[in-house]
Amino acid sequence: MMIERFRWWHIAEVLPMEADLFGDEKWTGAMFWNELAQHNFYVVATEGDELLGYAGLAATPDEAWVQNIAVRRTGQRRGTGRALLESLLAEAGRLGIKQTLLEVAVDNAPAQHLYARYDFEPVGVRRGYYQPSNTDALVMMRNG
């Protein structure tokens, strides 16, 4: 598996993955274009010609936010999410950012478990954050 920078041409490849994984709450192509235009740090995980997943990080001088991590169903439970998260955390470290935050669906136990393994701890809940399902988001934070 290789981790490389997410480029504009990856957008078309991730949109079907978004639809499969997130349904009505999927990101649009315009949302990805906006993330890239803002120079947020995005990476993709590939194996051969297959794009397994992607992840993004938005950073300010004081903190970083994991924007998203998505792994194609065929790439799950193979270390893809872990590799993507480690890439984001390495970038936050390179930038000297000490606090990284993220939101994760309260019903996504596998993702919460992954984040906990990297010292993310729950710090709050955003009620009805994910729309249109009205699912709550658990806010998790990591220092260091």
From TrEMBL:
Keywords: Acyltransferase, Cytoplasm, Ribonucleoprotein, Ribosomal protein, Transferase. It holds the Pfam family Acetyltransf_1. The gene is rimI. This is [Ribosomal protein bS18]-alanine N-acetyltransferase. It is found in: Cytoplasm. Gene3D superfamilies: 3.40.630.30. Its EC number is 2.3.1.266. Residues 1-144 form the N-acetyltransferase domain. GO terms for cellular component: ribosome. The lineage of its organism: Bacteria, Bacillati, Actinomycetota, Actinomycetes, Micromonosporales.
